[in-house]
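Collaborator request, handled under Task 6.
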Amino acid sequence: MSRIQQVLDHVHQNLDKPLAVPELAERCGLSRWQFNRIFSRQTGLSLGRYVRELRLSRAAEMLLFTNRRMIDIALACGFNSDISFSRSFKQHFGCAPVKYRQRGLPCLLKTPMSCHPDLLPPESLRSRVPGIRLDSRPTFTVAGVTDQVNGLFSENPDFYEKLPRLWQEFTGMTSADTDCTRVGVLDVTRGSEEPITYLAGAEAQEVPDAHTLSCITVPERNYVVIAFHGPLASLADVLKWFFRAWLPNSGCEALNAQDLEIYPPGLNPSASEVSMEYWIPVKLCQPIISWNAPNC
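Structure tokens returned to the collaborator:
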């Protein structure tokens, strides 16, 4: 772990320079084969993919937070030309750098990883905590069924008992396509330790009949997104680690607003393992990559 952290520190501070596997493996005293195996096991990514995504995310931040020219941003993020930079940027973000800057919203930004012991989740959770990203969503409306629940951080949580029932109720009341994405909205404006309103539903293109479904309109916001896979009961431990260890070192500040749970089609909340994304609204205090890698 400490060897990989040495590599991560070096990568974060030298994104504008060549970063080749043989040199990085030598830096931490490993063969190339050992290095690739250990780095992939600890991070879930190859070194090449990790560096590429972080360089592009750093470039996206510079587009949003500076007025620097494209060629200057390209060179600062390890690209040889603005042409190769623009091509890679469009492949990753789905739009040209100019359009990304004009939109003015952070989206799909890879956040730097850390193997520092104080910042790692408990050993039992490390295989269940994939990468975290910074993203945004425009204003949208969710229609569904609601109930008051005691959340994950309350003294007597009933979240796990009520959530499957709410989703079953929503499915029974609607003829929604089973292939559509499900959205859970948690109103934590009073804090996560107080009873919260949970809405189980789906994004609504039109406001439905108020006698059948409840609606919540979620305003445009920036989010930190945790991609989660595992038993739903372990989500609380992941979130505790996130708020206690990751967030204070991120350059972001969490907002008491509406957290989001995004579930893929075919949701079964009673399954032994669930795949979902947990979206936490945040205020950007400063660029998140520069916060983690100030010398970048």
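The cover message to the collaborator said: "The first helix runs from residue 2 to 13. DSSP finds ten helices and ten strands in the chain. Please let us know whether this matches your experimental observations."
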